[in-house]
Design brief:
12 strands, 339 residues, 42% helix, two-stranded antiparallel ribbon, alpha/beta, eight-stranded parallel β-barrel, single chain
């Protein structure tokens, strides 16, 4: 990891192409992020992951996926379980928080065990954004709740269960995407709430989970803090809010720099995100020419980041044993009346 570049790469298909393998060998991205286009069967996916790690020459190279449950799930039936969206646990929590927490713990454990078996080390979940009825549906039922306390408490359950089962969680989208009325995949949202309101609501779950190993930024402008730049590119947002007020001190991952909320060339976007304080940059599209440009323009990560990544991986080195059959049966009992 010490000679890797701080770029997490998406690739084009079910196998590494010869060009992709050569690029990975030459430029050594720190990790691979998977999408549905990459995931067909367990054997195929393990082959792709193994080929990536062989190409970069690092058996511990990060492999990431967005496997939240609900509509954001890269691994699909029939080979992988289908899990409910986060909002279901929030609904259960309105009636019985203990039952909600038990169901979420079981689901997260089952999910993480599936991922670990494949060689995936990082899951880009849980979402800690608040649900706002007026917010864009890009968050919607991906959020646990509108209540910061419920989101914080369920988020803690998910983070702890994922680490225990051997996968690193990523809290997202820091410092909060729920109020946005636009989809940052397509355009740049702005949030005009005052700082006090944000501190009392959106920031609360991220502060409660500030000890999480990874977090992912929001491509959103917060007018009251930095009206010029989205959080991903704003040193003020990262230093003063994410690292300062919220107190997050883990590995900060940019959201996908190919999203239309950002402008400039891909190399410029990556450079600006790293300069602002992101530790790792996601380039997800699988576009080979873009990926090559980004990697060639990026320096090798510094020793402190390499050490931080190694320490993060040590958290999942010895996962707790899990009775998956009983966990699956119990989860079905708990959520059966709610789905």
């Amino acid at each position: 990891m010490s000679k890797a570049k701080p770029i997490i790469l998406g690739v084009s298909g079910l196998e590494l192409t010869a060009d992709e393998a050569a690029l990975c060998a030459a430029e050594r991205p720190a990790g691979l992020i998977l999408f549905r286009r990459n995931c067909e069967t367990p054997d195929q996916l393990q082959g792709l992951i193994g080929a990536f790690r062989d190409a970069v020459g690092d058996a511990d190279a990060l492999v990431l996926v967005d496997q939240e449950g609900g509509r954001v799930a890269r691994l699909q039936p029939p080979h992988w379980r289908e899990f409910p969206p986060a909002a279901l646990y929030g609904r259960i929590a309105q009636e019985d928080f203990i039952e909600a927490a038990a169901a979420l713990q079981l689901a997260t454990t089952l999910q993480a065990c599936e991922l670990r078996r494949l060689g995936i080390t990082v899951n880009c979940a849980p979402v800690l954004d608040l649900f706002y009825p007026q917010g864009h549906d890009i968050i919607g039922d991906r959020a646990f709740s509108a209540d910061p306390d419920v989101v914080s408490r369920l988020g803690r359950v998910a983070v702890d269960a994922m680490i225990s089962a051997g996968v690193l969680p990523v809290i997202k989208h820091i410092p909060g995407h729920g109020r946005a009325t636009m989809d940052s995949h397509l355009e740049l949202p702005r949030i005009d709430a005052d700082v006090r309101s944000l501190c009392e609501t959106d920031f609360v779950p991220f502060k409660a989970l500030a000890d999480a190993p990874f977090a992912m930024t929001a491509h959103i402008v917060y007018d009251a803090i930095d009206p010029a730049l989205p959080a991903t590119l704003s040193s003020k947002m990262i230093e003063d809010v994410i690292r300062g007020d919220i107190g997050f001190d883990g590995v900060l991952l940019s959201d996908d720099i190919t999203m239309k909320a950002l402008d400039g060339s891909m190399a410029e976007r990556a450079s600006r995100a790293l300069a602002a304080g992101c530790d790792l940059v996601l380039h997800c599209s699988g576009d080979f020419d873009q990926a090559r440009t980004v990697l060639e323009a990026t320096e090798i990560m510094n020793a402190d980041l390499a050490d931080c990544l190694s320490q993060s991986l040590s958290l999942i080195a010895n996962p707790a044993p899990a009775d998956l059959d009983n966990a699956s049966a119990r989860l079905s009992q708990l959520i059966g009346a709610w789905v």
